[in-house]
Amino acid sequence: MRFSAKRSVGLLVILLTVVSLTLTAVLPAVQAATPSAPAKNVILLIGDGMGYGHMTLGRIVKGGALTMDSFTYNGTVSTYPNDPVEKWVTDSAAAATAIATGVKTYNAAISVDVNKQPVKTILETAQEKGKATGLVTTTRITHATPAAFAAHNADRDAENEIAVDMLNHKVNVLFGGGKRHFLPKDLGGKREDGKNLIEEAKKMGYKFIETKEDLQKVSGDKVLGLFKSSHLSYEIDRDPAKEPSLAEMTKKAIELLSKDKDGFFLMVEGGRIDHASHGHDTATVAKDVLAFDEAVKVALDYAKNRKDTLVIVTADHETGGLSIGGYGEYNFNPAAFKGQKNSFEDVIAAKLTADNYKDIFAEYVGINDLTLDERITLLSAFKVKETNPYAAANAAADIVSRRAYAGWTSGGHTGNDVPVMAYGPYAEEFAKHLDNTDLNKLMYKAYGFQK
Q1: 3-state secondary structure 342-365
Q2: 59 and 108 both lie in a single domain
Q3: Which residues contact 387 (CB under 8 A, 6 or more apart)?
Q4: Calpha distance 119→418 (Å, rounded)
Q5: What sign does the CA torsion over 339, 344, 347, 352 have?
Q6: Looking at the structure, do residues 337 and 436 belong to the same domain, yes or no?
Q7: pLDDT at 387
Q8: Is residue 329 within 8 Å of residue 404, measured between CB atoms?
């Protein structure tokens, strides 16, 4: 068939129009698939022991959405270790090692593989690239999660050794508890080698701080903040005039680290969510989840003012098997713990005796109608208090949890998947099911580092 020149031009115009419309239709998808620019900064926030039930509890107690609910990109994370015995349920050391190094290992390992050989962490790589680094936690700074980013040890309990290793790593900002592992015994510490690591840190160029007032004033390239001898206080017990919150420590850490022109890596841990969950202390768990969420807000607010910061929020594992509704009841009653003033583990249990438990429950928990079964449970716990110092705290917490229908399936960790949320460069890559080792790989990718 023959076409005139005029008709050919008309067909060409139609063809070009169709192509143009097609490109316009697919252009947003093409743009969405365009790789992000490398991240200058990564802020990784870990809610230790925080599963989906913990987030739901926090949301109910707050009476509205969490900052964690505002992330566009959400996924799930599997947490199992490479342990010959505990094959499906991880501890914090193995989980933090997987996130920090991308390598699965045995429970209790601090960034060493199954052969007990050191494995490089994301923090160490960030340092090699000239970035500032920081670790912030509500636990001892030498505890499993922060330790896995800046130490290598076959045993998580070797906290005196870990303290030395962390200082030798020259992390710019170290905020948390654990002063006892930096001081010799004659100064109230746990060290048997006679070393005063705080004085050694000062010689290395660290500024040492130990109060909230110190935190507010401090500046400099290297800061060691140890705010308590052991773990920091549960949020429900914290004296806001003396002890900094996780959000306040996070804000100061970002302020100090962001002065580095090459960027920074910061890990922030809400570590006591896990501890309260081990003890089934529902009110204390809720307050620590909300304190962690405030730290998430600090990080997210910083990232939203720029385009070069990846914020990741996740957990190392779930603790306690928390459910909203339990014991066969289709109900949840947060009013049962609304009157609780302090944590059972750190405050209330120390006050409870077989003679005063009714008065203490009324004053500190807001419960003045203990049933016969509840009284028997407490009295039984007092009898074994010498051999089990947590017995009274756990028994008291379980009484409140049962009244609230807060279900707990375990006193330990579970193998449940945990949440992950991300904002910033490469955040879309977190919107799927991941293994905890994938978090490490994606941080490397976001930075543009070679693994």
Answers
A1: CCHHHHHHHHCCCCCHHHHHHHHH
A2: yes
A3: none
A4: 24
A5: positive
A6: no
A7: 84
A8: no
24 token code pair: 């316009």
pLDDT at 16: 42
CATH code where residue 142 lies? 3.40.720.10
335 shares its domain with 362? yes
List the chain residues with pLDDT less than 50: 1-34
Same domain, 71 and 143: yes
Question: Is the pTM of the predicted complex or chain greater than 0.90?
Answer: yes
Range of the domain at 384: 323-407
Q: What angle do CA 407, 88, 401 make, to 5 degrees?
A: 10
Could you tell me the CA-to-CA distances from 128 to 44, 47, 264, 371 in Å, in that order?
18, 27, 11, 61
**Are residues 246 and 296 both part of a single domain?**
yes
Q: From 194, 4, 161, 162, select the one nearest 97 (Cα to Cα).
A: 162
CA–CA gap between residue 354 and residue 385 (Å, rounded): 11
**Is 403 a domain residue?**
yes
pLDDT at 422: 98
SS3 for the chain is CCCCHHHHHHHHHHHHHHHHHHHHHHHHHHHHHCCCCCCCEEEEEEECECCHHHHHHHHHHHCCCCHHHHCCEEEEEECCCCCCCCCCCCCHHHHHHHHHHCCCCCCCCECECCCCCECCCHHHHHHHCCCEEEEEEEEECCCHHHHHHHCCECCCCCHHHHHHHHHHCCCCEEEEECHHHCCEHHHCCCECCCCCHHHHHHHCCCEEECCHHHHHHCCCCCEEEECCCCCCCCCCCCCCCCCCCHHHHHHHHHHHHCCCCCCEEEEEEECHHHHHHHCCCHHHHHHHHHHHHHHHHHHHHHHHCCCCEEEEEECCCEECCCEECCCCCCCCCHHHHCCCCCCHHHHHHHHCCCCCHHHHHHHHHCCCCCCHHHHHHHHHHHHCCCCCCCHHHHHHHHHHHHHHCEECCCCCEECCCEEEEEECCCHHHHCCEEEHHHHHHHHHHHHCCCC
Instruction: Give residue-wise pLDDT tens across range 214-249.
Output: 999 999 999 999 999 999 999 999 999 999 999 999
- Tell me the catalytic residues: 92
Q: Give the residues across from 112 on adjacent strands.
A: 118
Q: Is 275 left (phi over 0), alpha (psi -120 to 50) or beta?
A: alpha
Q: How far apart are CA 119 and CA 97, in angstroms?
A: 9
Return the closest-CA partner of residue 45 out of 140, 135, 162: 135
Spatial separation of the C-alpha atoms in residues 253 and 232, rounded to whole Å: 17
Q: How many domains does the chain have?
A: 2
